[in-house]
Amino acid sequence: xxxxxxxxxxxxxxxxxxxxYEEYGEREITCPHCESAKVQKRLSRVRIAKSEDQRxxxxxxxxxxxxxxDDPQALGRMMRKMSSEMGEDLGPEFDEVVDRLEKGQxxxxxxxxxxxxxGADGGMGGMDDFxxxx
Length: 134
Prior knowledge:
Layout: E1 2-8, E2 14-18, E3 39-41, E4 47-48, H1 52-59, H2 62-65, H3 72-86, H4 92-102, H5 107-113, H6 128-131
Antiparallel strand pairs: 1-2, 1-3, 1-4
């Protein structure tokens, strides 16, 4: 459902309203702060809330994975985005790997610099998990 930004002409506050495309232009919008109906739509980007399933589907799009094996920085950005979408803290080892990738360090060099990356404690698995075929 899209979010639209409005400005109240009475209290001058800016607020967002989530409304469906069908409701847009039909539903009366009132300020949540002062309840005034004197509001003005602001020109802003339209954001669409996606379900968790849709976000994961978008991340799994094969075209988004093309060329990652040759571009450590793009791989790092993709891994950070996936972590953010999952909403989970994957630990300091993950952050270390992603930071190094975003600085352009190759997965092979990272594995050499952090040899115990996928150790017996269950860690993240070897760097092969991040640099193989996509």
